[in-house]
Description:
Blueprint lengths: L1 H24 L3 E4 L4 E5 L13 E3 L3 H10 L2 E4 L5 H17 L8 E4 L10
Parallel strand pairs: 3-4, 4-5
Antiparallel strand pairs: 1-2
Amino acid sequence: MKALFHYIPALAIREAVTLVRALLRDKKVDYQGRTVGFKGGGLNFPPLRPDLPIYIASNSPMGLRLAGELADGTIVSSCATEATVDYSLGIIGEGASKTGRDIPDIDRVARLNCCIGSKA
């Protein structure tokens, strides 16, 4: 059971991306995954565009691989060193190659946390 627990977050992200894409494309959606289920629902507004880009933010190898395989973009950690970013891009590239894509096909964002305040 411990090994299965390790895969559930990536599976949930995969299923959520699949569901969101279906909702953007179709008026009524039925979807049943292992972690995500949706029956006879839809958006109560017309989507701005059916191909809205979906980004995946993750620090885990499975999440990064999934971003490369499935997402339009990926968001990597703000606390990353150059070596960590290179490592992350390598894993994203592994996922991308599974679907015939290359790293330049995927938008890459380095998140930066900051706090802005007045000088007191």
